[in-house]
Amino acid sequence: MKRLCIGASEHSDLLLGICRLAAIAGKRVLLVDGTASGRITCIVASEEGPSLIRFGGFDVACLFPTLGSVISHLEELELVFEEYELVLVDTDQPEFLDKLQGRSLKFDGLYITTAYDKFTLHRTVNLIRNMDASGILPSVKSTVVIRNTVDCTIGEDYVDRILAPLPFKRPELYHSLPFDEVDLAALIDSGHQGVIELRRMSRSYRRVLLSVAHEITGEDEPVLKRMIKQAMRRK
User: What are all long-range contacts of 10-14, with beta carbons under 8 Å and residues at least 24 apart?
Assistant: First the structure.
């Protein structure tokens, strides 16, 4: 299962959490950081060059110029890209998916994180359009998380209207993750410590993580609940 991940709003913690749960469930997992800012790499790696990092029971590809170079590096390590049971490719650069060395890579779905504020919605629209212009936007199912929601005049219906003209299959249900100051504090601490910390996260956060992980991994929710409990007991 391969998902293309587009985050106009920060979602490194959610992707790391999803991969962590899938790894605890026994899946072989690869998370690829193809963002210009290297936002996942900042949490998991100290290396300054391209590298494959073992983190939280799964592999993270950091600082590679293209997905093709990730696949080539895996082959040098005698690893097979196609043998990973879950691959999440996080990128905001269409050119990152160029030069796949003749491979026909097909994503099984699209994962998007956005927010209510105007800038993030505008950036979400532009990212999706740029991916579509490059011919790499999956036309299959999507998962959309609206991050840091608060009570205001903007809601899910408005987000749906903004996304409606775009060339992807919108979900029937949006995942709304409310803003929580305690969650933010825990994420700041976790980022600096380089860990996946679920014990301090709110029930709302864990509920959204469980629902999104269910959609992306295909694991049953009761199984994922057990995985969350295991993850909360480990670092």
Answer: 10/39, 10/113, 10/147, 11/90, 11/113, 11/145, 11/147, 12/39, 12/40, 12/42, 12/43, 12/90, 12/191, 13/187, 13/190, 13/191, 13/196, 14/113, 14/145, 14/209, 14/212
CB 4 within 8 A of CB 91: yes
- Tens of pLDDT along 34-67? 999 999 999 998 767 899 999 999 999 999 999 9
Q: Positive or negative, the Cα torsion across 57, 92, 84, 41?
A: negative
Q: How far apart are CA 56 and CA 234, in angstroms?
A: 10
Q: What is the pLDDT of residues 122-160, one digit of tens each?
A: 999 999 999 888 887 877 789 999 999 999 999 999 999
Contact call for residues 73 and 52 (beta carbons, < 8 A) = yes
The CA distance from 227 to 117, in Å, is 33
Q: What does the pLDDT read at residue 231? A: 84
> What CA–CA distance (Å, rounded) separates 151 from 134?
36
Query: 171-224, pLDDT tens digit by residue?
Result: 999 999 999 999 999 999 998 998 888 888 999 999 999 999 999 998 888 888
Q: Which residues of 136-156 are buried (b: 16+ CB within 10 A; e: fewer)?
A: bbbeeebbbbbbbbeeeebee
